[in-house]
Write a structure and sequence with these properties.
By secondary structure, the chain is mainly alpha-helical. It has one domain. Helix content is 75%, strand content 0%. Helix 8 packs across helix 11.
Length: 380
């Protein structure tokens, strides 16, 4: 699963590098096959959808192991664990972005049109950056990436409450299935023609999280044979390849127009997650750069724009040489991965462990299924 997350953050990075180059007027895709360009640099949104699916799977499956069933989730401890994992780095990021806005640094200054710094901080802290951008336009890129946290954290705000209320019967399953059905509509019918809301809406991302939760319930209650698990993983891989690598084909275009491409990619990610959970398959060492990138995907996601803007300045100062574009992409991925790993090791993981101990007297009090160090590196 770390390998799949690694691919997801890879697609996000490639997309964001491409966007910086396009905004900078660098026609680097000229002459390249349309499908190659689409597969390499236009799958960022689909990468986030993969994150959502794996997040739902990991959060729900860990909750089941930790408390025995979703109906027995300890609401207080769930929130504290979530806070310990998400808040330290997010709050540090907001503090840094606030300073950069106050000194009016290029790329980091918030336009008055979107409400200024105070409005952006309120949106980030109350998880409605996506709503703000849909109504007033995009925030600077370092703020914009927080839209996905808005979707995730609103879902998890209500998740333990719903689990306690509906988890004993089939009500929870029905509610999660409702999110799955509404997801494509949230990306099409319910957007009101707003292009930002088409990509950033709550319903448009929560279907993937709900699918991940449903997969966790299925996996924790069902034992697949080894051949069935392998078949499941293979089928999930085929679905990912179909959506990610053939996006310009007419059938895929039709799926995208109906919001179903995101549903299919979430299903594929969940199938791989289910297979990986039951077979305990380990990725080959050759793929270690990808799964290590996936291990620190949260830290990479929140910090990579600093790397991209720094590299962009170097690229511009060098005269925007076309021959250096591949190096730009490679450097962005490598340095973002290194920065994310450093932030995780020296800040977010120590803070995670410290907060867990302060809130609940260690792993045992919070019902952890593995030790604190292992959990510190788990998915957001």
């Amino acid at each position: 699963m770390d390998g799949v997350r690694g691919l997801a953050i890879f697609f996000v990075l490639m997309n964001h590098v491409n966007m910086r180059l396009r905004i900078g007027g660098v026609p680097w895709t000229k002459g390249l096959p349309e499908q190659l360009v689409s597969s390499l640099v236009w799958n960022g949104q689909r990468g986030v959808q993969i994150f959502f699916a794996l997040s739902g799977f990991l959060i729900a499956s860990t909750a089941i192991r930790r408390w025995g069933s979703l109906s027995r989730v300890n609401i207080r401890d769930f929130y504290l664990l979530r806070f310990a994992r998400i808040a330290p780095l997010m709050l540090l990021l907001l503090a840094v972005l606030t300073i950069l806005d106050l000194v009016h640094l290029k790329y980091f200054t918030i336009s008055p049109k979107t409400g200024g710094l105070g409005r952006a901080l309120l949106a980030a802290l109350t998880f409605h950056v996506n709503v703000l951008e849909a109504r007033r336009g995009y925030l600077p890129a370092n703020w914009d990436i927080l839209w996905s946290l808005s979707v995730e954290e609103v879902f998890y705000l209500f998740f333990p409450l719903v689990c306690r209320l509906l988890g004993r019967g089939k009500g929870l399953i029905g509610l999660l299935l409702m999110f799955v059905v509404l997801g494509p509509l949230g990306r099409t019918v319910f957007t009101g023609g707003n292009e930002v809301w088409k990509e950033y809406s709550y319903l448009g991302g929560m279907d993937a999280i709900a699918l991940g939760c449903l997969t966790a319930v299925l996996v924790c209650g069902t034992r697949f044979s080894r051949s069935a698990a392998r078949g499941l993983g293979a089928a999930g891989s085929v679905l990912l390849i179909f959506i990610l690598c053939f996006s310009t084909q007419p059938f895929n275009r039709m799926l995208e127009r109906n919001g179903l491409d995101m549903s299919i990619i979430a299903i594929g990610a969940c199938m791989i997650a289910a297979a990986a959970a039951q077979t305990r398959w380990q990725a080959p060492r050759l793929a270690s750069p990808i799964w290590r990138l996936g291990e620190r995907s949260y830290e990479v996601y929140l910090t990579h724009m600093f790397v991209l803007f720094a590299l962009l300045e170097v690229f511009v100062e060098a005269g925007k040489p076309m021959s250096a574009v591949p190096l730009f992409f490679a450097a962005a991925i490598l340095i973002s991965g290194v920065l994310g790993a450093a932030v995780a090791r020296f800040y977010s993981e120590p803070m995670n462990r410290s907060l867990r101990k302060r809130f609940g007297h260690g792993a045992e009090r919070l019902g952890s299924v593995v030790d604190d160090r292992q959990l510190a590196g788990s998915s957001r």
